[in-house]
Please model this.
Amino acid sequence: MDVSTLFNPNLDKIQISAIRRFDQEVSQISGMLKLTLGEPDFNTPEHVENAAVAAVQAHESHYTGMAGLLELRQAASSFFADKYGIHFDAESEILVTVGATEAISASLMSILVAGDKVLTPAPLYPGYEPLIQLAGAEMVEIDTTTNDFVLTAEMLEAALIANPETKAVILNYPSNPTGVTYNRAQVKAIADVIKKYSVFVISDEIYSELNYTDEKHVSIAEFAREQTIVLNGLSKSHAMTGYRIGFILADESLTGQLIKTHQYFVTAATTVSQFAAIEALTNGRDDAAVMKKEYIVRRDYIISQMTPLGFKIIKPDGAFYIFAKIPEDLVQNSFDFLIDFAKEKQVAFIPGSAFGKYGEGYVRLSYAASMDVIIEAMKRLTEYVNEKR
Model:
């Protein structure tokens, strides 16, 4: 009996992430320098690793409660209150998830039904749309390319008026792939619009600790708390991608529902990782500072090298990505451009088309790579561009 045709038909609408597919394809080329994935090249801080080892040695190998260790949720509550001024109760308003990725999945699958629409600024991280499609909903992209990748309150309101079926707005800031973030006035203006409509805002703030402006990160939960589902985690801030610890922070009226989906997805996050996360959020509150300082040096170096070559770059205010417009005298199809570059110079970036239709014509570089790799990659890019002209 052939059961291969019995899958959820919405699976036919989605594919494996274009970022992962491109990375795998170019990884087969010998000697490849990769500025592709958003994974810090730093090691997890040693004191956090020691906490994980201590948890193993203490035989902390059993399930925690569905929401996660209370001590960790208390640490998270204190961390986010102190850092960003948002207050969520540890016992009833914080869920520990398997990375921010599961937080995204649990949130979207909890709120969406067939026929719903989800608004997102674009270009955007490609991990949202497949989940939206699996739920039978539709993602509507708001083009920000004409406004230096910044979503304005006016743009959002126009999209909400044009799409009355909207169930949620997704914000990701600092942004993957553009590095754009929002100041207090901008966040408040967007929140003021959202509060006029019966919609959720899913605020993916995973890069909140990598904000390079003079103003600290501002969460939209400060202004629209009852409608906001905040997503965060330790992968980027503490170089803990493999530990898979994320957080959902939301009003009790929302977490009471979200925990149902979370529980059936994963039961609970990994226990040993939760003990490591307690250490990260208590004794490692400022661990990101050292990494952030280095990221700024890398960012500025890349801009100094690519701009004279004709790449148009909006200087990122956060995260660790450069989203650069391909010079007009070079191939504009981002996939073809980067495949040729990878084959000729053994350097890999990510095609802008991986971030939606508004990303075509751009390339994304991750500067979560060592300075030595970045310097060599820029040298090869300069050679390649000059040879093509």
Summary: The domain at 9-43+288-388 is CATH 3.90.1150.10 (Aspartate Aminotransferase, domain 1).
